[in-house]
Specification:
By secondary structure, the protein is mainly β. Helix content is 0%, strand content 57%. A hairpin with a 3-residue loop joins β9 and β10. The termini are far apart. 32% of the residues are buried.
Amino acid sequence: VQLQASGGGLVQAGGSLRLSCATSRRIIGIDAMGWYRQAPGQSRELVARIISGGGTSYADSVKGRFTISRDNAENTVYLQMNSLKPEDTAVYYCNLEQRLLGVTTYWGKGTQVTVSS
């Protein structure tokens, strides 16, 4: 299974971007999908996550600015990012957790988001 993320780019502070992540094939047993980010010199952190039932969770730093959503039919997850700040600059990775007999985690390659001040 491959995850293809897109939508990153360069934007000024206060601007918006929408990230998308699609799977290479239809997948059953998706437990959750999410977005993580990693800034230079920092560890990867959870940005937002959406579980199979539709519940969402966000990092405190993005609450009220970012919205995660999912198209179940297309196995695609989106991250709408508004009011972007320079500290949002990072490589953003999408993530998928599949639960069948156990839990398998898949990662996309990442897409760069750069917010200029």
